[in-house]
## 1
Amino acid sequence: MEDNSPYQAGHAAPADKTEARLRANLIPHEIGGPIKHLWVLATVLGAISLLVSVVQFAPQYEAYRDGNITLLIMIIAVGATAVDGILYLAAAWAIRRYSRVAACLLLGYYLLGQTLSLLFTERSILVGLPLAVIIAFMMIRGTRATFAYHRYAAQEARRPPRGRLSDDPLFAPKPEA
C-alpha cells in the first residue's frame, strides 16, 4: 500500500554520494582555502606575465624596426614571457580541479624561476625576496592542501553514506489495523 502523505519522503535517485558530498562545498576550509588561494595566485601571476608580454612587445618592436635587434631575439623576448603566463594559467586551471601534479609542477617552476632570477640578474637580493618568499609559502601551502584533499576524498569514499531520516523505522508509515 502506498502512502500519499505529503510528509513522506520520496525515493532519491542513486548517485555517487562521495563526489556529491565533496562537490557540495563540504570540503573543510583548512583544505579548500589554500587550494583556492593557490589557483587564484597562479591566475594572477599568469595574467601579470601576459600583461608584461604585451607591454614588452612595443619597445621590442621599436628596436627591431630600428635594426638594433633581430626578429628572432624579439620573438624569444616576448614569447618567453607569454609562454610563462600561459603555463601559469594552465596550472591554475588544473589546480582548480584539485590536481596534485599541477600543484607540484607549479611550485617547482616558480622556485626554479626565482632561483635563476636571483642568480643571473644584477638586482639586489632584498628587492624581490620578501614577496618571493610569501608567494613560495602560499604555493607550498596550496600544494600540501591538494594532497590533503585527496586523502580527505579517499577517506570520504570509505565512509558509508548517512541514511535518510525517512528510512528510520520511527518515521515509517503506520500499517492499517
Note: The chain has a mean pLDDT of 83.
## 2
Amino acid sequence: MKTVWTRKAYRIYVKALAWERYHVGSNASQTMVQNLFNGIETIRKMPTAGRFERKVGRHEYRSYLVHPKCRMYYWHNRKEIHIVNFIFSMQK
C-alpha cells in the first residue's frame, strides 16, 4: 500500500521531532522515528489495526498509538493509507 501524508501531518511530525531532539536528546528522537515508522509499517500490513474513531463521508478515521507519546490518525482505502494528523502528549 502507498502511504500519503497530509501537509498538516508532516508539519506536526517535523515540529515534534525538533522539539524532542532539543528537549530530550537525539537518541530519544531516533527512537521516536523508528517507532513511528514501525507503526506505519504495521498499518500498511493491516489497515484495520487502529482504533476506530469516526466515519466522515466514506472515510473511516482510525488512530494508532505509534509511540507512548504519539497517536497517529489515518484513513485508508484499497490502495493507500492517508496519514492526516498526529497528537503528541509531550509538548506543552
Note: The longest helix spans residues 26-45.
